[in-house]
Model the fold of this input.
Amino acid sequence: MNFDEQIATYKQQKQQLLDEMEGKKEMFLDELVKFTASWFEEHTMHSIKNNPEKVIGLGEDKARQLKTELKELANRSDELVKSYMSEDALWWHMNENKHSYFAYDYKLQEKHEKKIKLMFGELGKILIAYDIEKASSEYQRDFSSSWFYDGYSSKENKNIRYASGVTFSKELHTSDKEYIELIKKVQDINWKIEDLEEQKKVENVEDWWTSL
Done:
């Protein structure tokens, strides 16, 4: 049995899958840019409608300034997605492991959701700066808010995370599921390569022992 040839074949198959995963990642991020811009606009209106007195209390000039900042934020969706979602640790094909992965209809990968909610916190920062919204610690039980200081962040640190659930688009869920299926395929190939390499070691030591 030619272990080297088999291993080389599997590695070639693996590289093709990794290239496909990079493509799925880019598709996911492209869709996330559109979703983020829409989400910012939707939740801006939600906050404005829920806090009419605070908004009116800003006065026309400050309200206009707030509106401009919020519009600029939505226009920066592409930049924000690249900034928050480009870390290699977020993408399995850039940071392989042997963990089990499962696709769900109602949520994305946990590490992706957490990072996206932190990105959505950019909206919270603006609303909080204008005293439209308030944030609390996620460890503070007696305070209800849509915005949390991330982890043990304090007001001075100002890392804000969206605290409520997010209904992601069908396109994002589809991309996530397809990516997870590719993870499983690559993991299967990794196990086959490991098995062949182990068999190769055994055969090599047998040949070496026999030659003594």
Observations:
- The chain is about 65% helix and 5% strand.
- The longest helix spans residues 3-50.
- The longest strand covers residues 147-149.
